[in-house]
Amino acid sequence: MHGMRLLTVFALSSLLVAAVGVAGVGIFPPTCERIECAEFDVIAEGDGYEIRRYNSAVWMSTSLIDDISLVNATRTGFLQLFDYIQGKNKYGETIEMTGPVMSQISPSDGPFCKSSFVVSFYVPKKNQANPPPAEGLHVQKWQSKFLAVRQFGGFVSDDTIGQQADALLSSLTGSNWASAIDPSEAYAVAQYNSPFEFSGRVNEVWITLDLHASAM
Ligand SMILES: *[C@@H]1O[C@H](CO)[C@@H](O)[C@H](O)[C@H]1NC(C)=O
Known about the structure:
Elements: H1 2-17, E1 36-37, E2 41-46, E3 49-62, E4 65-67, H2 70-85, E5 98-99, E6 101-106, E7 115-122, H3 125-128, E8 137-152, H4 161-172, E9 188-191, E10 203-209
Parallel strand pairs: 1-5
Antiparallel strand pairs: 2-3, 3-7, 3-8, 4-7, 6-7, 6-9, 8-10, 9-10
Bound molecules: 2-acetamido-2-deoxy-beta-D-glucopyranose (NAG).
Signal peptide: 1-19
Protein name: Heme-binding protein 2-like
Keywords: Signal
Protein backbone atom coordinates (compact mmCIF):
# COMPACT_ATOMS: atom_id res chain seq x y z
CA MET A 1 0.00 0.00 0.00
CA HIS A 2 2.66 2.39 1.10
CA GLY A 3 4.79 1.37 -1.87
CA MET A 4 1.99 2.08 -4.32
CA ARG A 5 1.34 5.47 -2.83
CA LEU A 6 5.01 6.24 -3.02
CA LEU A 7 5.15 5.34 -6.70
CA THR A 8 2.13 7.50 -7.42
CA VAL A 9 3.64 10.44 -5.59
CA PHE A 10 6.88 10.05 -7.51
CA ALA A 11 5.08 9.72 -10.85
CA LEU A 12 2.98 12.86 -10.33
CA SER A 13 5.75 14.94 -8.93
CA SER A 14 8.02 14.25 -11.88
CA LEU A 15 5.70 16.47 -13.92
CA LEU A 16 6.33 19.38 -11.56
CA VAL A 17 10.01 18.69 -11.29
CA ALA A 18 10.41 18.67 -15.06
CA ALA A 19 10.41 22.46 -15.13
CA VAL A 20 13.41 22.77 -12.81
CA GLY A 21 16.88 22.71 -14.29
CA VAL A 22 20.03 21.66 -12.47
CA ALA A 23 23.45 23.26 -12.53
CA GLY A 24 26.22 24.05 -10.09
CA VAL A 25 25.29 24.42 -6.46
CA GLY A 26 22.58 25.97 -4.34
CA ILE A 27 19.71 23.98 -5.86
CA PHE A 28 17.12 22.89 -3.34
CA PRO A 29 16.21 19.34 -4.39
CA PRO A 30 12.51 19.46 -5.35
CA THR A 31 12.07 16.04 -3.72
CA CYS A 32 12.67 17.70 -0.36
CA GLU A 33 9.47 19.76 -0.78
CA ARG A 34 7.57 16.49 -0.39
CA ILE A 35 9.62 14.26 1.87
CA GLU A 36 11.84 14.90 4.88
CA CYS A 37 15.46 15.46 3.93
CA ALA A 38 18.61 15.60 6.02
CA GLU A 39 18.99 19.18 7.26
CA PHE A 40 22.19 21.15 6.96
CA ASP A 41 23.60 24.65 7.17
CA VAL A 42 25.54 26.15 4.29
CA ILE A 43 28.57 27.70 5.93
CA ALA A 44 30.36 28.84 2.76
CA GLU A 45 29.86 28.98 -0.99
CA GLY A 46 32.54 28.90 -3.66
CA ASP A 47 32.87 28.53 -7.39
CA GLY A 48 31.29 25.15 -8.10
CA TYR A 49 31.03 23.99 -4.51
CA GLU A 50 29.39 24.68 -1.19
CA ILE A 51 30.48 23.80 2.33
CA ARG A 52 27.79 22.31 4.57
CA ARG A 53 27.52 21.34 8.18
CA TYR A 54 25.24 18.43 9.09
CA ASN A 55 24.28 18.39 12.74
CA SER A 56 23.17 15.11 14.31
CA ALA A 57 22.11 13.28 11.17
CA VAL A 58 21.24 9.61 11.68
CA TRP A 59 21.52 7.08 8.84
CA MET A 60 20.57 3.43 8.52
CA SER A 61 23.40 1.82 6.57
CA THR A 62 24.01 -1.45 4.78
CA SER A 63 27.13 -3.51 5.37
CA LEU A 64 29.88 -3.29 2.77
CA ILE A 65 28.67 -4.13 -0.73
CA ASP A 66 31.43 -5.25 -3.10
CA ASP A 67 30.80 -4.29 -6.69
CA ILE A 68 32.57 -2.71 -9.62
CA SER A 69 29.52 -0.51 -10.19
CA LEU A 70 28.28 2.26 -7.91
CA VAL A 71 24.95 2.22 -9.72
CA ASN A 72 24.45 -1.49 -9.13
CA ALA A 73 25.70 -1.38 -5.55
CA THR A 74 23.27 1.45 -4.87
CA ARG A 75 20.42 -0.58 -6.34
CA THR A 76 21.35 -3.55 -4.14
CA GLY A 77 21.54 -1.37 -1.05
CA PHE A 78 18.42 0.59 -1.86
CA LEU A 79 16.29 -2.56 -2.20
CA GLN A 80 17.45 -3.67 1.25
CA LEU A 81 16.67 -0.24 2.73
CA PHE A 82 13.31 -0.13 0.96
CA ASP A 83 12.35 -3.42 2.62
CA TYR A 84 13.50 -1.92 5.90
CA ILE A 85 11.19 1.10 5.69
CA GLN A 86 8.34 -1.11 4.49
CA GLY A 87 8.48 -2.87 7.85
CA LYS A 88 11.13 -5.55 7.43
CA ASN A 89 12.76 -4.64 10.74
CA LYS A 90 12.73 -5.83 14.33
CA TYR A 91 9.71 -3.70 15.32
CA GLY A 92 7.75 -4.40 12.12
CA GLU A 93 7.49 -0.63 11.85
CA THR A 94 6.97 1.26 8.61
CA ILE A 95 9.07 4.37 8.21
CA GLU A 96 8.45 7.37 6.00
CA MET A 97 10.54 7.80 2.85
CA THR A 98 13.27 10.45 3.17
CA GLY A 99 16.09 11.90 1.13
CA PRO A 100 18.77 11.57 0.09
CA VAL A 101 19.99 8.03 -0.39
CA MET A 102 23.74 8.13 0.27
CA SER A 103 26.29 5.81 -1.33
CA GLN A 104 29.70 5.97 0.33
CA ILE A 105 32.59 4.68 -1.71
CA SER A 106 35.86 3.12 -0.65
CA PRO A 107 37.99 3.13 -3.77
CA SER A 108 39.79 -0.06 -4.69
CA ASP A 109 43.53 -0.53 -5.01
CA GLY A 110 43.57 -1.06 -8.73
CA PRO A 111 41.55 -0.35 -11.86
CA PHE A 112 40.26 -3.92 -12.13
CA CYS A 113 39.39 -4.37 -8.46
CA LYS A 114 35.97 -4.15 -6.93
CA SER A 115 35.15 -1.21 -4.71
CA SER A 116 33.19 -1.36 -1.50
CA PHE A 117 30.05 0.67 -1.03
CA VAL A 118 27.83 1.46 1.91
CA VAL A 119 24.33 2.62 1.02
CA SER A 120 22.36 4.60 3.60
CA PHE A 121 18.86 5.84 4.24
CA TYR A 122 18.42 9.11 6.17
CA VAL A 123 16.41 8.24 9.29
CA PRO A 124 13.52 10.68 9.83
CA LYS A 125 13.70 12.82 12.99
CA LYS A 126 10.74 10.93 14.42
CA ASN A 127 12.73 7.66 14.41
CA GLN A 128 16.20 8.96 15.17
CA ALA A 129 16.07 8.26 18.91
CA ASN A 130 15.19 4.63 18.33
CA PRO A 131 15.58 3.43 14.75
CA PRO A 132 14.28 -0.15 14.45
CA PRO A 133 17.22 -2.56 14.20
CA ALA A 134 17.37 -4.94 11.26
CA GLU A 135 19.64 -7.75 10.23
CA GLY A 136 22.46 -6.59 7.95
CA LEU A 137 21.89 -2.92 8.72
CA HIS A 138 23.59 -0.63 11.22
CA VAL A 139 23.12 2.93 12.42
CA GLN A 140 25.54 5.66 11.42
CA LYS A 141 25.41 8.82 13.54
CA TRP A 142 26.89 12.12 12.48
CA GLN A 143 27.44 14.49 15.40
CA SER A 144 28.75 17.38 13.40
CA LYS A 145 29.96 16.66 9.92
CA PHE A 146 31.40 19.10 7.40
CA LEU A 147 31.07 18.33 3.70
CA ALA A 148 32.17 19.93 0.47
CA VAL A 149 29.33 19.46 -2.01
CA ARG A 150 28.92 19.62 -5.78
CA GLN A 151 25.52 19.15 -7.41
CA PHE A 152 24.85 17.62 -10.81
CA GLY A 153 21.78 16.57 -12.77
CA GLY A 154 20.68 13.54 -14.75
CA PHE A 155 21.12 9.92 -13.81
CA VAL A 156 24.19 8.95 -11.81
CA SER A 157 26.40 6.86 -14.06
CA ASP A 158 29.52 4.83 -13.34
CA ASP A 159 31.24 6.50 -16.29
CA THR A 160 30.88 10.06 -15.02
CA ILE A 161 30.82 9.88 -11.24
CA GLY A 162 34.62 9.98 -11.02
CA GLN A 163 34.61 13.13 -13.13
CA GLN A 164 32.12 14.78 -10.76
CA ALA A 165 34.35 13.95 -7.80
CA ASP A 166 37.40 15.27 -9.67
CA ALA A 167 35.54 18.46 -10.56
CA LEU A 168 34.68 18.98 -6.89
CA LEU A 169 38.30 18.41 -5.88
CA SER A 170 39.52 20.82 -8.56
CA SER A 171 37.08 23.51 -7.47
CA LEU A 172 38.43 23.21 -3.92
CA THR A 173 42.05 23.46 -5.00
CA GLY A 174 43.56 26.69 -3.79
CA SER A 175 40.62 27.42 -1.47
CA ASN A 176 40.81 27.62 2.31
CA TRP A 177 39.07 24.26 2.43
CA ALA A 178 41.62 22.25 0.47
CA SER A 179 43.76 21.54 3.54
CA ALA A 180 40.74 20.11 5.33
CA ILE A 181 40.22 17.31 2.80
CA ASP A 182 40.92 14.02 4.52
CA PRO A 183 42.74 11.88 1.95
CA SER A 184 41.80 8.68 3.80
CA GLU A 185 38.09 9.43 3.38
CA ALA A 186 36.46 8.37 0.16
CA TYR A 187 33.72 10.42 -1.40
CA ALA A 188 29.99 9.82 -1.30
CA VAL A 189 27.13 10.27 -3.74
CA ALA A 190 23.75 11.54 -2.57
CA GLN A 191 20.68 10.92 -4.75
CA TYR A 192 17.35 12.65 -4.22
CA ASN A 193 15.12 11.18 -6.92
CA SER A 194 13.32 7.93 -7.54
CA PRO A 195 14.36 6.00 -10.67
CA PHE A 196 11.00 6.99 -12.20
CA GLU A 197 11.79 10.68 -12.45
CA PHE A 198 13.40 11.49 -15.73
CA SER A 199 14.05 15.19 -15.43
CA GLY A 200 14.91 17.73 -12.80
CA ARG A 201 17.11 15.18 -11.10
CA VAL A 202 19.43 16.40 -8.36
CA ASN A 203 22.48 14.46 -7.26
CA GLU A 204 25.46 15.47 -5.19
CA VAL A 205 29.01 14.37 -4.69
CA TRP A 206 30.20 14.80 -1.11
CA ILE A 207 33.71 15.02 0.26
CA THR A 208 34.20 15.00 4.02
CA LEU A 209 36.20 17.86 5.47
CA ASP A 210 38.19 17.50 8.66
CA LEU A 211 37.82 21.05 9.84
CA HIS A 212 39.16 20.47 13.34
CA ALA A 213 42.53 19.36 11.96
CA SER A 214 42.84 22.25 9.56
CA ALA A 215 44.06 25.74 10.22
CA MET A 216 41.13 27.97 9.30
C1 LIG B 1 24.84 -3.73 -13.44
O1 LIG B 1 23.70 -4.57 -13.43
C2 LIG B 1 23.16 -4.84 -14.72
C3 LIG B 1 21.86 -5.59 -14.53
O2 LIG B 1 22.02 -6.67 -13.67
C4 LIG B 1 24.19 -5.58 -15.54
O3 LIG B 1 23.69 -5.86 -16.83
C5 LIG B 1 25.44 -4.74 -15.65
O4 LIG B 1 26.45 -5.46 -16.34
C6 LIG B 1 25.96 -4.33 -14.29
N1 LIG B 1 27.02 -3.34 -14.46
C7 LIG B 1 28.25 -3.52 -13.99
C8 LIG B 1 29.23 -2.47 -14.33
O5 LIG B 1 28.56 -4.49 -13.32
